[in-house]
Design brief:
The structure is a single chain. The protein is mainly beta and about 800 residues long. The chain contains six helices and 43 strands. It has a 22-stranded antiparallel barrel. A five-stranded mixed beta sheet has the order 3-9-10-7-8. Strands 37-18-42-41 form a four-stranded antiparallel beta sheet, with no helix packed on it. A hairpin with a 2-residue loop joins β26 and β27.
């Protein structure tokens, strides 16, 4: 590893020491400005092809939000971004890691070190794990959502798509500003920036984002509350124009987040041992239909008999993040640029999660600790920004090394799996250590066959190695779990293996405990794309693409009685066929785009189920051999008169499992062929209206509203078909527990922009009708919980700009 990093430093230094007495090249900021001048009024400039161009000229499906649009719709959180894009879903997980699904393609895993199906990056610097992007949505130029398999141009491989956050850059003149919001639950949210030149060649921009909000959830069984939010994030960008042909950009990010994790709502109790359920399993109160209602443990459980006391699983959070991105652009010739992007991410967390949504210790997670250290280096050579080039190409290579360590302590003393037959076990320690290395080489090209017809193609080879060490252990004072597995080793393996605190307990192939699980998953793949762009006139683009993308395999982080349950899921792939159109009508008063696509989905990674005997039904990783997705998307923006903008987008999805047989969340073997994929509503609609009226004093009054509508979806494969078994002791609110009902959420805003556009005041509301909406439903051992969306929130905002 150190040798590779030295090589990277040598490469970066070589760029910096190269001859600098050459003509200037188009820096990214200048390139963006030039593209903006050519774009129609109101169109967003994107870098989907790693060069700046109007979104209407990109032959692919892209959703984009510039800073103006983000401000208008008051989009400040990742879940709000997801609601603004049809076919994009963000499901909260049990362990506070965001789960993105795009066009029905996603991976609902709550582990820290699992690669997502939708990749994320900031200024093209990859953030390979979703938790790293938690505080990226502030002081941005724009956000780009690229749909379909990615890999030949953007960072890591992905099967669903990519989200790229583009930070606002240092300005040529001194500028400063801040946004200050005050809202329901005593929410105070502020973002500020200051930007400008430090010298003739150096510019800097500092941005800070911070929020405090009081508890928004109430406990429906006692007087208690949860959900306080406290975080601060900062970003410092330094641009150095070292010469006419050499430019550096250093981006430093950091955040400290001590917000409470959202408490879950328990909606079903399924005793692990129906023949001998515990009083807690029979009497845990189920949650009312209220977005704010929840329940959680307030303290640990006092041990019964010889059991040790356990720690409290009251929801608490503490995440610290540091990121550093160094980009160097060097003009090799007038038309060819060499780019180096060096990335470092580091995260540390100490969390606690109440997994069962009750005041009892049915299944809790009083410690969810972990660290991520990630290094990435990309080198690429390109003429993609050369003006007038008939053949535009990019070639490059990428190296990524990640270290992920995760510790979970799971407690279950009030669960009926803790009984005399299991030696009254009540706590398990789960440790996972991953070391991942990825090497990739890629090439992409576009060739203008005629003035109207362009052929494009790309290819990427990736080789990955994931070394994983897993160990379930007993660190309690009573050592009852260790004693049980020592006995099992004697009975099943015929050998006495002493087990001490922290020693691994899972039985190996010889039914003996004591050994950690060491597995190395080696995979390689070739992702690719090809397509045609046809421009029949200056306002219309027709395109057709075929592409294939991959998502790397993954390991589970679970408690297991035997080592066989820790088998990783292998890599998945998607082959996508897409055709689309983008056009402008009536002198750009109407912008219209649409796409139709078919995706052949192989070896989809899912959270399956395994019956671990001692620990009951637990989640494990599995692969769905074959499934497919058909979809249609359309987006329209209409400006019928001055000041009025109407925008709407819709999507239709039809997903189907073609081949898969496995165990349901209730422990039954089932053929899932014909079932829908999770988090893929058939219809998604997003609409927005914005009306602005200038005043005689030179100001502007504005009013707007938005709606987000989604039909029902499943949280698990076949979720709408699975019913909770009626065995006399199971209890539920809805027997079809894994169907997420559809909803329509309405936001509204009104405000005034003072003359000169330096001061704006507004009032806003989100989910103004307090519509009940569920974002995820989760099966965990003997309970089923759900995570709701936010209730109605409202507030006022002040926006100030100094120029």
């Amino acid at each position: 590893m150190s040798k590779i990093r030295r090589t990277v430093l040598v490469a970066s230094t070589a760029i910096g020491l190269a001859d600098i007495a050459q003509p200037a090249f188009a820096a990214p900021a200048a390139e963006t400005a030039a593209a903006a001048e050519e774009a129609p009024v109101g169109e967003i400039i994107v870098t989907a092809n790693k060069r700046s161009e109007s979104i209407s000229k990109v032959g692919a499906s892209v959703a984009a939000f510039d800073t103006t649009l983000l401000d208008k719709r008051n989009i400040v959180r990742l879940d709000e971004l997801a609601k603004a894009v049809p076919n994009l879903a963000l499901a909260p997980s049990t362990h506070g890691t965001p789960v993105f699904t795009l066009r029905g393609i996603g991976f609902n895993s709550d582990s820290l070190g699992v690669y997502p199906a939708v990749s994320l990056s900031l200024d093209q610097a990859p953030m390979p794990f979703p938790v790293l992007a938690g505080h990226s949505l502030y002081d941005l130029e724009r956000v780009e959502v690229l749909k379909g398999p990615q890999g030949t141009l953007f960072g890591q491989n992905s099967t669903g798509g990519a989200i790229n956050f583009v930070a606002a850059k240092p300005t040529k003149e001194l500028q400063a500003g801040f946004n200050l919001d005050y809202g329901r639950f005593n929410e105070v949210h502020g973002t500020m920036y200051i930007s400008g030149p430090v010298s003739e060649t150096v510019g800097m921009r500092l941005a800070v984002d911070a929020m405090h909000r009081d508890d928004w959830q109430y406990n429906f069984t006692r007087k208690d509350s949860n959900g306080e939010q406290n975080y601060i994030a900062a970003r410092l960008i330094t641009d150095w124009q070292a010469s006419d042909k050499l430019k550096f950009e250093l981006n430093l990010n950091g955040s400290v987040d001590r917000s409470d994790p959202q408490a879950l709502q328990i909606i079903a109790s399924l005793p692990s041992n129906p023949a001998a359920p515990t009083p807690e399993e029979l009497n845990a109160p189920l949650a009312p239909r209220d977005l704010r209602a929840a329940n959680w443990s307030n303290s640990g459980r006092r041990g019964v008999g010889t059991q040790s006391d356990t720690e409290s699983a009251r929801p608490r959070g503490n995440r610290k993040l540091f990121q550093a991105f160094l980009r160097a652009d060097y003009n090799v010739t007038d038309d060819v640029a060499l780019t180096s992007i060096t990335t470092y991410n580091h995260l540390k967390q100490n969390m606690a999660f109440d997994l069962d949504g009750s005041q009892y210790e049915l299944v809790d997670n009083p410690r969810g600790d972990g660290t991520i250290s990630d290094f990435n280096q990309e080198l690429r050579l390109s003429n993609a920004s050369a003006p007038g080039a008939k053949f535009r190409w990019t070639v490059g290579a990428n190296y990524n090394h990640s270290k992920v360590d995760e510790l979970q302590i799971i407690t279950y003393g009030a669960n009926s799996l803790s009984n005399a037959g299991t030696n009254f076990i009540h706590e398990s320690n789960v440790q996972n250590r991953g070391r991942m290395d990825n090497y990739a080489a890629f090439a992409n090209g576009e060739y203008d066959l005629t003035d109207q017809l362009t052929f494009k193609a790309g290819i990427r080879y990736t080789s990955s190695k994931n070394k994983n060490r897993m160990c379930g252990s007993d660190t309690t004072g009573d050592q009852q779990l260790s004693s049980l597995f020592r006995l099992l080793g004697n009975l099943l393996g015929g050998k006495d293996i002493p087990i001490g605190p922290g020693d691994c307990i899972s039985l190996n192939a010889q039914n003996l405990p004591g050994d950690p699980i060491n597995i190395t998953l080696k995979e390689d793949n070739v992702s690719w794309r090809a397509g045609l762009d046809f421009k029949p006139n200056s306002t219309t683009l027709l395109y057709a693409n075929i592409s294939r993308g991959y998502k790397a395999g993954a390991f589970p982080v679970i408690t297991g009685a035997t080592q066989e349950v820790f088998t990783p899921a292998k890599q998945e792939s998607v082959t996508s066929y897409e055709a689309g159109v983008k056009t402008r009508l009536m002198n750009n008063a109407i912008s219209l785009s649409g796409a139709v696509f078919y995706q052949d989905y192989r070896d989809k990674q899912i959270q399956g189920t395994v019956n671990t005997a001692l620990f009951g039904l637990l989640q494990r990783l599995d692969n769905v051999p074959k499934s497919h997705i058909f979809g249609v998307e359309a987006e329209v923006t209409i400006r019928p008169t001055a000041g009025l903008t109407l925008s709407g987008s819709m999507s239709y999805l039809k997903t189907k499992v073609d081949e898969y047989s496995g165990i349901t969340v209730f422990g039954d073997q089932r053929n899932f062929a014909g079932s829908r994929l999770p988090f893929a509503p058939s219809w998604s609609l997003v609409g927005d209206i914005d009306y602005r009226v200038p005043t005689s004093a030179g100001g502007e009054v504005f009013v707007g509203a938005g709606i987000n509508y989604r039909t029902y979806q499943d949280a698990y494969i076949a979720g709408s078909q699975l019913q909770i078994p009626d065995n006399g002791v199971n209890r539920w609110i809805d027997r079809t527990a894994f169907r997420i009902e559809g909803y329509a959420l309405v936001d509204a805003r009104i405000g005034y922009v003072f003359p000169g556009e330096k001061l704006t005041v507004s009032a806003w509301g989100k989910n103004v009708f307090n519509t009940f909406n569920v974002q995820n439903k989760i099966s965990y051992n003997n309970i089923i919980t759900q995570a709701t969306g936010m209730p109605a929130t409202y507030g006022v905002s002040l926006k100030v700009r100094f120029k």
